[in-house]
């Protein structure tokens, strides 16, 4: 059974940094692209970033480009999101999501971790 | 950038009825990259449909997807109480895009 468990969320002030983590189990981790998707309170889903299975390629939404960095450690089956220069509009539940094999969809999701950016 | 517009914003129906949810793309998209998700309050989204019409593992056959080009539909026949939720369509072009969601509520 695929399991994804996020951690690292919390309350931070504008301009500060935070690193989210996502631990994976139940599948051949290095074979799958992984993404971060966020959801602001009461709002819809917004894709944030994706990283390839090898970690050699990554893409970002325009809203976070230059501030967020996605990375992974395949030996530890871990996914990370380094978030710098946080803004109030980054407040959201952040989900890690597993890419579907040979598809550009997300077939498994973690339970999410809440990031609140407020002074 | 492709924009996905879902309609209606809210759909009020009774258990046992059928539901039709729409997702319209701002330009023609590949059906291979069109998916639907279900999200219940306090839960993570769940993949229902991929490739516009293929059901994900474990999804009941009362859920079906169809469409091509710019117009896609998620159909739920015979609504069960657990089907009342928010539904999102999603597409991959050069990046990933979600529609704004349709809330399916009990009438």
Please mark out the parts of chain A with pLDDT under 50 across 5 or more consecutive residues, or reply none.
none
Chain-averaged pLDDT of chain B:
96
Strand content of chain B: over 45%
Number of strands of chain A: 11
Low-confidence stretches of chain B: none
Output the number of helix runs of chain A: 0
* Spatial extent as radius of gyration of chain A: 13 Å
SSE layout:
The complex is a heterodimer of chains A (119) and B (107).
Chain A: E1 3-7, E2 10-12, E3 18-25, E4 34-39, E5 45-51, E6 58-60, E7 68-73, E8 78-83, E9 92-99, E10 106-109, E11 113-117
Parallel strand pairs in A: 2-11
Antiparallel strand pairs in A: 1-3, 3-8, 4-5, 4-9, 5-6, 7-8, 9-10, 9-11
Chain B: E1 4-7, E2 10-13, E3 19-29, E4 34-39, E5 46-50, E6 54-55, E7 63-76, E8 86-92, E9 96-98, E10 102-106
Parallel strand pairs in B: 2-10
Antiparallel strand pairs in B: 1-3, 3-7, 4-5, 4-8, 5-6, 8-9, 8-10
How would you describe this structure to a colleague?
The complex is a heterodimer of chains A (119) and B (107). Chain A has 119 residues and is an all-beta fold. Helices cover 0% and strands 51% of the residues of chain A. Chain A has strands at residues 3-7, 10-12, 18-25, 34-39, 45-51, 58-60, 68-73, 78-83, 92-99, 106-109, 113-117. In chain A, strands 2, 4, 5, 6, 9, 10 and 11 form a 7-stranded mixed sheet that branches. In chain A, strand 9 and strand 10 (106-109) form a beta hairpin. The N and C termini of chain A lie far apart (40 Å). By secondary structure, chain B is mainly beta. Helix content of chain B is 0%, strand content 57%. Chain B is built from no helices and 10 strands. Chain B has strands at residues 4-7, 10-13, 19-29, 34-39, 46-50, 54-55, 63-76, 86-92, 96-98, 102-106. In chain B, the strands form 2 sheets. In chain B, strands 2, 4, 5, 6, 8, 9 and 10 form a 7-stranded mixed sheet that branches. In chain B, strand 5 and strand 6 (54-55) form a beta hairpin. The radius of gyration of chain B is 13 Å and the shape is globular. In chain B, 36% of the residues are buried. The interface between A and B is medium-sized, with 21 and 24 residues.
